[in-house]
Design a protein that fits this description.
Structural class: alpha+beta
CATH superfamily: Outer membrane efflux proteins (OEP)
Radius of gyration: 37 Å
Strand order of the largest sheet: 1-2-3-4
Number of strands: 4
Oligomer: single chain
Strand content: 5-15%
CATH architecture: Up-down Bundle
Shape: elongated
Largest sheet: 4 strands, antiparallel
CATH class: Mainly Alpha
Length: about 500
């Protein structure tokens, strides 16, 4: 290669790099849409804890081991985070999105290939250069760039930004699965506790009713009670037995759901089960302001990332209206003999710049831009909807919390009244003052009120689980951690620095 060709190549390469660095972008500037929700939570009961209260902390700053202090529940959550298949699928989707971004990012740099080839062929006389049949050989070795696009108008860069935004959104989706999984494990463990405690309640009720049935049967045998009274007492016992079977079914189903979440069979029949009053349940986390959900909730962050990607796709669609410049070139050596491949005078080079200007495409580019803009508008609507859904979920959890305490107090009072009513009805029935009907009604009322109290206790704890989840808590294991290894903060730093 001569000095002047070398100089031309160097100058052209410098000019190409300058053009690449000066390339523009037609993507709209990202602006976060205004949150279509109220600035404050509606207070319909006791004031919700706010950030800064020394007794509580924001959910996003509470690690799940700090929030759920019960060792048995911590063990189940750790098993689920290690073995759950939904979480594993979400993690693999993140890896796939990262690979797609890597593929797209590679288009911003020229691809350099090296190749070597040899051709040996027989040419007939009518097409041979010397008009004489013979065998011809050719060997070459080249290094070259194939169809590298100078990204003057940001098309390639915007496609890369769109892929990066999708990568971030997928990482946030994995984070949402992580947070939701922890809440599901806690909720199913609660269901298991409640079903087991309901079975114990029905066992006690069944024992009391069976004892009463025995006394009524003795009275019937001596003629002191009629058959109607006997059959009504038997029905009461069988009702309790049927409800006990139903509670056992709920316990089995809750256990099966828990095994699905943790991804493996549970060795213990009742993993860490105690009564609801014995378990150490968390305090409500601070709710903060609705605007803080924009930085806490992974579904909202994912929607915003997809909005960024939609803006980048608009930039790529607009760039398609402008000329596209591609470069191709090669440098190598060629010879008719293999041993002369690297001899002097065998070198060759080629340089093929190409510019393509769209003139008529049947409206394809215009339709592509329209589609990108519509998808951007869809992304805005999805982002606003994600905020509204998040706001509604938190508001529902706060509304439930404001009423559950009062409901629990009322249920306790109802159980106390029903228990005393049964005592009086039993005394009156045994003394012959009142009929068996009042005694039966008192039995049914007591069991119903006791089960309602158990359900209210479970609902109160379930509300704490739901509130922690909808406020974005559960991503870190301990408070003060930015996230698990390979978490979203690491993903964004790696993606923006590459």
């Amino acid at each position: 290669m001569t000095d002047w060709t070398t100089a031309i190549s160097i100058r052209f390469a410098g000019a190409a790099l300058a053009l690449m660095s000066a390339g523009c972008s037609f993507a709209p500037i990202h602006e976060r849409p205004a949150a279509p929700v109220a600035a404050q939570w509606q207070q319909d009961g006791p004031a919700s804890p706010q950030a800064g209260d020394p007794a509580v902390a924001p959910a996003a700053e509470l690690g799940w081991r700090d929030y759920y202090a019960e060792p048995a529940l911590q063990h189940l959550i750790a098993l689920a985070l290690e073995n759950n298949r939904d979480l594993r699928i979400a993690a693999l989707n993140v890896e796939a999105a990262r690979a797609r971004y890597g593929i797209q990012r590679a288009d911003r740099l020229p691809g350099v290939d090296a190749s070597a080839a040899g051709v040996r062929q027989r040419l007939p006389a009518d097409i041979a250069p010397a008009r004489r049949a013979g065998i011809a050989s050719q060997y070459d070795a080249t290094v070259g760039i194939t169809a590298f696009e100078l990204d003057l108008f940001g098309r390639v860069r915007n496609l890369g930004e769109a892929a990066l935004a999708e990568y971030f959104a997928t990482a946030q989706a994995r984070r949402a699965v992580h947070i939701g999984l922890i809440a599901q494990v806690a909720d199913n463990w609660l269901s298991l506790l409640a079903a087991r405690e309901r079975m114990d309640l029905l066992d006690r009720t069944l024992a009391v009713r069976a004892e009463s049935l025995g006394l009524i049967r003795l009275r019937h045998d001596v003629g002191a009670a009629n058959e109607l009274e006997l059959r009504q007492a038997e029905a009461l016992v069988e009702t309790a037995r049927a409800e006990r079977v139903g509670a056992d079914r709920q316990r089995r189903q809750a256990r099966n759901a828990l095994e699905l979440l943790v991804g493996q069979p549970l060795a213990d029949d009742d993993p860490g089960l105690r009564t609801l009053s014995q378990v150490q349940w968390p305090k409500p986390p601070a709710t903060g302001l609705p605007s803080e959900l924009l930085e806490r909730r992974p579904d909202i962050l994912a929607a915003e990332d997809r909005l960024r990607g939609a803006n980048a796709n608009i930039g790529a669609a607009r760039a398609a209206f402008f000329p596209r410049i591609t470069l191709a070139g090669s440098l190598g050596t060629a010879s008719a003999e293999l041993d002369g491949l690297f001899d002097g005078g065998s070198g060759f080079w080629s340089f093929v710049p190409r510019i393509t200007l769209p003139i008529f495409d049947g409206g394809r580019n215009r339709a592509s831009l329209d589609l990108a803009e519509v998808r951007r508008d869809l992304s805005v609507a999805e982002y606003e909807r994600a905020i509204q859904v998040a706001f509604r979920e938190v508001a529902d959890a706060l509304a439930a919390r404001a009423t559950l305490d009062e409901q629990l107090r009322a249920q306790r009072a109802q159980v106390s009244a029903a228990r005393r009513s049964l005592e009086l009805a039993d005394l009156r029935y045994r003394g012959g003052v009142d009929s068996q009907l009042s005694w039966l009604d008192a039995q049914r009322s007591l069991l119903a009120s006791e089960q309602a109290l158990l359900a209210a206790r479970a609902a109160q704890v379930s509300n704490l689980i739901e509130l922690y989840k909808v406020l974005g808590g559960g991503w870190s294991e301990r408070g003060g951690q930015a996230g698990a290894p390979g978490g979203d903060s690491v993903v964004r730093t790696a993606g923006q620095g590459s």
